[in-house]
Design brief:
The protein has 479 residues and is α/β, with parallel strands linked by helices. The protein is 27% helix and 20% strand.
């Protein structure tokens, strides 16, 4: 009988641990003692009583656990934001003499942040994930850059259901997404093999997450070419992500890249989404905006005082009061500031440098009663390297590479230039040519006879036999 008593005590201990711990002991111990006395009086009825006893314990324990649990008044949400990645999947950068960036290292940091946060985490991108990319991504039509983001998705991310409210990834387009035209941009997003493919994935499935853009419409239909926003859900609370790209994109990309498209005013397009979202009871609104400014960089969390300047300051004051956070990009700089709109509502604005060397860590608290953001704070991690314990990606990291059997090529000698290296009719664009490499390329090395220029890229990165292009070509040939 002692063995039976010990067995039942173990069952109760397990039940207590699952349904509420030691606080539930008074509720469960008395019925057990009464039933145990009956078991001792009539050992033959044990088999009949045991299922009833266990069912009783489960029901009482469940009711006790439900009575004790209370939903928190505020829901914690984390947003890890990157921008202007430009296909830098490989470790091709150095700061202060040590390697920084690369897809595996960035992924290790982001995954660590997710593990340590006590709520739900979104990973967002504010444009220029592709375009002006190093050869490792550009040679494969920037599919590796999209694959990298796909690898950061949770189990709800899927190319068959990109708008899933439980999926953790969201992105918007930048001007460089249009470098090769609308058709190629949509292929990267929605799937389908490139004419010179397939490459690393056959068939190419596209992004497993939504690209949102409220201010890019077709000239013929006046309809958005992408969803204007996506609504996510965290613990029953809806959160909207609205996308927008700088309206000057039409002047920065060659005409064939933006043919048939119209780029609307950013603030007007964003604000036009607000009434629809309010009608759907969405009060927490995040904007992914590929336009930015400049600010003096600093360490730590968001400071109350900080001066943000640049083109984005023509947009932020005009945003609706419902906008809580703006994740910006384009200017390849640091931003972590609270900027008031015209009504005085302070909007948290961030930007995390470029090329995967940094990310913004935004933490929100959302009221369960009002469904609105009641607290928001940003921070940055930059100069990402492998020096921190536990962050070495290791030999199992996903690192797409160029193999001997890979088809396709990307580099062309084109008339491109102007502001930020754009505008095919600009003077600087006309200077980039085989006959005038010295006008815009770095000094020629021994034996150099040409300068290659990627559409949407910067010529200096690919010039010279001793430069990056030669190392990348040689590395691809040796694999």
């Amino acid at each position: 009988m002692n063995r039976l008593d010990n067995h039942l005590r173990l069952l109760i201990a397990l039940d207590l641990d699952y349904y509420g711990g030691v606080d539930c002991v008074p509720v469960l111990s008395f019925p057990f003692r009464m039933n145990a006395m009956k078991f001792r009086e009539n050992k033959g009825h044990l088999a009949a009583w045991l299922p009833i006893l266990l069912t009783f314990l489960a029901v009482v324990g469940l009711l006790g656990g439900c009575a004790q649990y209370e939903y928190p008044e505020k829901v914690p949400v984390q947003i890890l934001a990157i921008n202007d990645f430009h296909g830098h999947i490989s470790a091709d950068q150095k700061m202060k003499g040590r390697p920084v960036g690369s897809a595996p290292v960035l992924a290790a940091y982001l995954k660590k942040e997710q593990r340590e946060f006590r709520g739900f985490t979104f990973i967002v991108h504010a444009g220029d994930q592709v375009g002006a990319s190093p050869l490792a991504s550009a040679f494969l039509q920037d599919e590796p850059a999209i694959m990298f983001l796909n690898l950061l998705g949770n189990r709800e991310c899927s190319s068959r259901d990109r708008l899933n409210p439980q999926a953790n990834l969201v992105a918007t387009v930048g001007n460089h997404e249009f470098d090769r035209g609308l058709r190629e941009m949509m292929r990267l997003i929605k799937g389908g093999n490139h004419p010179q493919g397939p490459f690393l994935e056959d068939p190419w499935q596209g992004a497993t997450f939504p690209y949102v853009a409220a201010n890019v419409v077709s000239k013929d239909t006046h309809q958005p070419i992408l969803p204007r926003y996506v609504i996510k859900e965290v613990d029953g609370i809806p959160i909207a992500f609205i996308g927008a790209v700088l309206k000057e994109t039409k002047d920065m990309v060659r005409p064939s890249g933006v043919a048939g498209l119209e780029f609307l005013d950013e603030a007007a397009a964003i604000n036009a989404c607000i009434p629809e979202l309010k009608a759907r009871q969405v009060k927490s609104i995040i904007v992914l905006l590929h336009q930015g400014g400049t600010q003096r960089a600093y360490e730590g969390r968001t400071r109350k005082k900080g001066t943000l300047t640049g083109a984005i300051m023509k947009i932020l004051p005009r945003l609706d009061d419902e906008v809580d956070v703006v994740v910006s990009g384009h200017t390849h700089s640091f931003t972590n500031a609270l900027v008031p709109n015209r009504s005085g509502k302070k909007i948290l604005v961030t930007q995390a440098w470029y090329y995967g060397k940094a990310y913004a860590d935004i933490e929100l608290e959302i009221s369960r009663a009002t469904r609105d953001v009641v607290k928001k704070v940003g921070g940055h991690r930059h100069r990402l390297g492998r020096c921190r314990s536990g962050l070495d990606p290791g030999p199992g990291s996903h690192r797409p590479h160029v193999g001997r059997g890979t088809k396709g090529g990307l580099f062309h000698q084109e008339d491109r230039g102007g502001r930020h290296g754009h505008g095919e009719n600009s003077k600087s664009g006309r200077r980039i040519s085989p006959g005038q490499p010295h006008r815009r390329c770095p000094p020629m090395g021994p034996g150099q006879r040409f300068c290659l220029y990627q559409p949407g890229g910067h010529p200096g990165r690919y010039c010279g036999w001793g430069g990056y292009l030669w190392r990348a070509l040689r590395g691809a040939a040796l694999q």
